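Dear H.,

Thanks for agreeing to be a second pair of eyes. The structure we're designing against is below in token form, covering all 357 positions.
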């Protein structure tokens, strides 16, 4: 992992950040393992507020602070939106973390630790969807999709690409609010899309064809492909493009979306890896066939999200205006789906008989 030059994390930019110690929090339990280290549920000792503490692991870094963590902090510091996870502050611990015998743990012998403090979220979308017997209702799916698109539109307007949209990075609280999280791969972009960006981003199943074909000049459309995959997954009950490796991922995409040519995707044949992955035969697009059980408006929107040519893929703002969100059954109020989603796990036929349409 790349490291920052000394002084690159300028905490002066964030007055009061880093001034408090982690001892202002009582760690309650470990709730996850992040890109840089453990994530804990913790309680602010004065206010009793429950937060998530994300530890930034320093033991792999020969010097300095992980540059990806700096990026995540800088990006989250400028984003303030109800559908984007809130980074509340940074806290530090002066010495190494120790076990019960007082021995330094994590191989972190000499350095102190740094923690990001986030608002606490109760679930993630993948965890909720994977519960046995769980089927989301159409109003719930519309509600989650609307929040996802609203948060993403906000990021894109602020020239931030998330670059790792997937169910486990969409956190949901017990009130049904959805927030984009894990900005460890995010970066700022300029609107001309001419930057030379890292190609290997986005978890394979949610990675768009332009990245699989080697593009390093890309924009917000990469996140919209991932949104399309999540949308279809919510309606379908399982991931739609579960490739085992990059060539297989591209094959699965072509089998569903057809093989691209210069007519439907001008410039595709000039993509860096087009010749390596060129499909051996022409395949027809069959999104409508594969998902004919989806309602018409859902299918129309999905078609526009899973468009091969990124320049023709629907942007988040336009997706929010799609008929799908404005026709019955309308998206439910976040608070309402808590009733079904979180507390009651009903047999799936109960839901389909009573709610699904
Ligand atoms: P991340 O590195 O952000 O993907 O975090 C790893 C895991 O920690 C996630 O998959 C969640 O299970 C958990 N986690 C991260 N942030 C939070 C949060 N704000 N509230 C609750 N759990 C979280």
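And this is the sequence the design step returned. I haven't edited it by hand at all.
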């Amino acid at each position: 992992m790349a490291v920052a030059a000394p002084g690159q994390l300028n905490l002066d930019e964030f007055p009061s950040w880093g001034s408090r110690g982690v001892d202002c929090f009582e760690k309650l339990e470990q709730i996850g393992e992040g890109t840089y280290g453990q994530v804990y549920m913790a309680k602010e000792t004065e206010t009793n507020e429950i937060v998530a503490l994300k530890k930034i692991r320093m033991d792999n870094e020969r010097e300095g602070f992980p540059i990806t963590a700096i990026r995540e902090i800088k990006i989250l510091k400028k984003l303030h939106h109800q559908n984007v996870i809130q980074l509340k502050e940074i806290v530090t611990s002066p010495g190494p973390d120790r076990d019960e015998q007082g021995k330094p743990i994590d191989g972190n012998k000499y350095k102190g630790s740094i923690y990001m403090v986030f608002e606490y979220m109760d679930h993630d979308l993948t965890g909720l969807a994977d519960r046995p017997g769980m089927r989301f209702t159409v109003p719930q799916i519309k509600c989650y999709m609307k929040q996802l698109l609203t948060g993403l539109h906000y990021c894109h307007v602020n020239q931030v690409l998330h670059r790792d949209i997937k169910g486990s990075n969409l956190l949901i609280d017990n009130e049904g609010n959805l927030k984009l999280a894990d900005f460890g791969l995010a970066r700022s972009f300029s609107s001309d899309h001419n930057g030379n960006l890292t190609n290997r981003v986005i978890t394979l199943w949610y990675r768009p064809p332009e990245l699989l074909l080697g593009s390093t000049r890309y924009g917000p459309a990469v996140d919209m492909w991932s949104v399309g995959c999540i949308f279809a997954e919510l309606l379908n009950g399982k991931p739609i493009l579960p490739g085992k490796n990059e060539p297989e991922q591209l094959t699965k995409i072509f089998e569903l979306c057809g093989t691209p040519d210069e007519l439907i995707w001008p410039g595709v044949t000039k993509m860096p890896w087009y010749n390596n992955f060129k499909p051996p035969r022409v395949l027809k697009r069959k999104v409508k066939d594969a998902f004919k059980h989806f309602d018409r408006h859902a299918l129309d929107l999905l078609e526009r999200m899973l468009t091969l040519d990124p320049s023709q893929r629907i942007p988040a703002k336009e997706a929010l205006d799609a008929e799908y969100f404005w026709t019955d059954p309308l998206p439910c109020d976040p608070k309402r789906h808590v009733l079904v989603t979180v507390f009651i796990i009903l047999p799936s036929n109960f839901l389909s008989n009573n709610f699904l349409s």
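Two observations from my side: The mean pLDDT is 86. The longest strand covers residues 25-33.

Warmly,
E.
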